[in-house]
Amino acid sequence: MAMSLTTKCVVPMFMLRRYSASLASSSYYYYACGADSSLSSCRRLHTTTATTTSADATAAASTRARRHHEQHDKYTVISINTLASRYFYFAATTITATSAYLWWNAGHMPFVTSRRGDDDGSSATAKADSLSSNDDDAPDSTTSPPRSSSSRLPTISLDEVRASRAVAITLLARLEAEDTDVVPTDVGSKHRILITHDDVVYDIGEFIKNHPGGARRILRAAGGAVEPFWKMYAQHSAPGVRAVLDELAVGRLSTSDVAKLQEELAQELESDPFANDPKRGNVEEKLLVHSYKPFNAEARAESLLLQQHDIDDDPASHRLAFVTPNDAVYVRHHLPVPVGGGPTSIAVGECRFDVADLMDESKFRRHRVKAVLQCSGNRRSEAQREARELELPDPQGLPWKQGAIANVEWEGVLLADVLRAAGVVPEKKMVTTNDGYERHVQFAGADVPRVGDWKDETGFYGASIPLRHALDVNREVLVAFRMNGEPLSMEHGYPLRIIVPGCTGARWVKWVERIEVADDESPSFWQQNDYRILPGSVRTRADADFSAMPALNGTPVSSAIIWPPEGATVSPSEDGTVEVSGWAHAGSGRGIAYVEVSIGSDGVWHQAEEVRRDADQDMRGGSFSWTTWRTRVPLPAAPSKGGEGEIVLRVRARDVDGNVQPDANGACWNLRGLCFNGVHARRCNAAAP
Questions:
Q1: Catalytic residue from among 531, 652, 672, 680
Q2: Which end of the chain is more exposed for a tag (fewer CB within 10 A), N or C?
Q3: Residue 650 forms beta bridges with which residues?
Q4: Is omega for the bond preceding 466 within 30 degrees of 0, making it cis?
């Protein structure tokens, strides 16, 4: 009697290798790499068919081997299909082995708990995931990635690992001499270049050419442990990075070698590269923290609202403060805060200015501008939620909500004045190269990675903008030293920070210590290999060609609801309306024409009645502040007495050029989740009056 037996289970990718022998008898399996396993393109691991001498049976088995391509999932689906009459024994053996493994590992695997949380980040897995990042967004470096489970790998001695350092040093010297990260194609095939993590040995020979941080940086870790580097470059703790590393596992260290290595690394591993960051106290009162090392946090909704004592005419209203208080301005760090209070001077080309020189009003005229500072990943949590609903890969990066934005009055000196003082004059022939390409102003921050005695001189956070923007006084680009009338804090770039009104926050370099005019954009990783919006067809970093995409500067029109909070219960007033307020902003100096709010599913949009703009700014080209808005909208149907009903509030804005926010339908999806500007929706509960 023939019967079909099908069993499905979910296991992590690394367990496939460990249990491939027991599954090989009568199954095929395949996997789809996670979206954040950015360097690993999806590929078949292993395909086996039932042992048979029949050509027909072999053909039928081969037909069953199909490829699954879900790049947003981190798990592998294993399907075991066996005809019982001939292969029942093998199927029973396979199922028993798999079940035994599942039972043994039940306390360690998240089979039923989703790794993704809701928009409020309330679940434990969401909080853990919120500490993840790629560049844009780096997690707490103290979070340990999962151990590799390569127990069947051969033993490799620590001496052999260290011997591979000689190859790495030779290659590194060659790349440094040529100032390139282009690795010879035969390196991986001719030589083993080994590193360790925990007790596992990995061969990175083939991988170094694809390392997102460049070949020269990863070669520094060759022949030793990678842990000290991962403590500094905390983005390596992001989901998927360890899965990429596991692909490269080739052996294990002996117990004695592990003990020896740990003893040697003890001092380095005990040191904390973030130990000199500012003491932040109870920062969680005003900010929602996404990661501590490096520190990244956004304003809580209530932090952006005016304090009640500041509202004389209507103390019950919930309006946004037009100027964001300093302690409610979001913080975005990529590296540790510089040690020693930041630079005391700034190099501009061949000149050097002390900070005191820039603050001397007899030498430079002071300038003030109100301008929005907004993280490129603001509202990414919405992009991630939408991606899950549409079964798209999760956009990579920290799950910023709607608070990674602030409107601040900045004070400093015009960058154009500084460039003139340094000998750069605004002649047209100098704004472009001889062949007509844009010239650029490069900014380098003092936040430079250090690992042991090595200072990563090229790992600084840097950015650049077109020279014509810098020289255009109407764009009001500043070298700033004050915010909202107070000196910059260390958290926000003390003593000097670049302010680029109308431009994404990624170009507002903090702790700036060097400015150069050059034919090319900044060589910084964050200028060259991040903060560029990739096409929707690019689903992994392995497929990304950042050089083919323009650097992100301006930002699209966007808006968000700040009041009421997500999930809040709101009570309609006597006229059956509820209060809604928030912000709207368009980049590149474009003003907001109007804001509209809808409630429920009737599709009716109500123009916001109370709108505040900066009256001193030009709506066309010089509107760098945000627009705050507040209105009351009628409930479509009042809940029954004593009851509650869910409502969905939506907001959209249109700028003066006619650009409007798109509906949330995947149109904004990109791999990094940058500049998400879909219609903002907020779910609340309406209580009966």
A1: 531
A2: N
A3: 598, 681
A4: no
